[in-house]
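@channel sequence for tomorrow's demo:
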Amino acid sequence: MAFFLETLFGGLMAGMLYSLVALGFVLIFKASGVFNFAQGAMVLFAALAMARFSEWVPKWTGIDNAIFANLVAFMIAGVFMFAVAWLIERLVLRHLVNQEGATLLMATLGITYFLEGLGQTFFGSDIYKIDVGMPKDPMFLLESVFEGGVLVNKEDMIAAGIAAALVLLLSIFFQKTKTGRALRAVADDHQAAQSIGIPLNRIWVIVWCVAGVVALVAGMIWGSKLGVQFSLTTVALRALPVVILGGLTSVPGAIIGGLIIGVGEKLSEVYLGPFVGGGIEIWFAYVLALVFLLFRPQGLFGEKIIDRV
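structure tokens (generated this afternoon):
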């Protein structure tokens, strides 16, 4: 039972990190109808910015306190990602409103390669590390219940807590603030929102900037776990099944979908892997997403598409 709980906790924590990346997809698609394939590149770019600024800030300012230096680096990287997201919306996607989906997809693919090249130009192409002080030692839980306890990684717990806190803040933002309600109105009906005076362009800029901050948090956590390298863009590919499962228009769906995918990957690798030769964790999420595309293409919480003729 203890081993099962270890696997379950590991899956839940991995699922929260998948959800962070998926959240960027959902936020942008929900408000503007653009499937932002560049979200993975934004995560990489944000991780590169965080890693390099955390190196440069102590040299520029003479700050010896690592925690304070990382906080300053995070704020600078946040401003940087705000600027990147604003420029993407302002210079590219604003001019492609109401274009075909394939056109928008190709535009975000172009942005992906542009950000990868720009990141290499600005920050270099080495493998960098992000050390934000999260403990990497394992810890044991429920020792009084199970002999030896349940082994859990402290870093994973803190990362999952940060992801959960960000999701909670975004939920409060969408539900309780005037701007959040305007965002939800735009998501429901662009034309109706515009007819009551909601400025679509400003709303889309806000959404892209929020997605940039989400990418920064995701990049910081994934970079701390895996190191900052250009293969980090593949994290977005791991988040695609999460979006398909939860629904492209649902913020709670991104979270629940991430948890289901994370737990499913870990449990299937441990309990089904020996029967199929291993490696099931790599393709499990995509097979599950394919099943949903066949039987429920809108996902668990997505809005059902109804075409009227």
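heads up for whoever presents: The chain has one domain: 2-230.
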